[in-house]
Design brief:
The chain has about 90 residues and is an all-alpha fold. About 45% of the residues lie in helices and about 0% in strands.
Length: about 90
């Protein structure tokens, strides 16, 4: 997996410049942007979503809380074990 550090080293620019090309391309000169984008394409660069979530403190995930209370049988979790009945 290619990192922005590797792209920066190959292009002769800073990691910050590569990050700006990816996130805010209009803040980088056209020449540098084209070089960085070309190298990123050649190396098949894909942003690491886990690293991005850690850096931005936003994951874009939605959680679901499912109540499996046995007193409300209509709201059972679909994978929960059925209650055992004792004879």
């Amino acid at each position: 997996m290619t990192t922005i550090r590797e792209i920066a080293q190959l292009c002769g620019v800073s990691v910050a410049t590569v990050s700006r090309v990816i996130n805010q391309p209009l803040t980088v000169s056209k020449e540098k942007r084209e070089v960085v984008e070309r190298v990123a394409r050649e190396l098949d660069y894909r942003p690491n979503e886990s690293a991005r979530a850690l850096a931005t403190k936003r994951s874009g995930l939605i959680g679901l809380v499912w109540d499996t209370d046995h007193r409300r049988p209509g709201w059972r979790h679909p994978y929960a074990r059925p209650p055992r009945h004792r004879c």
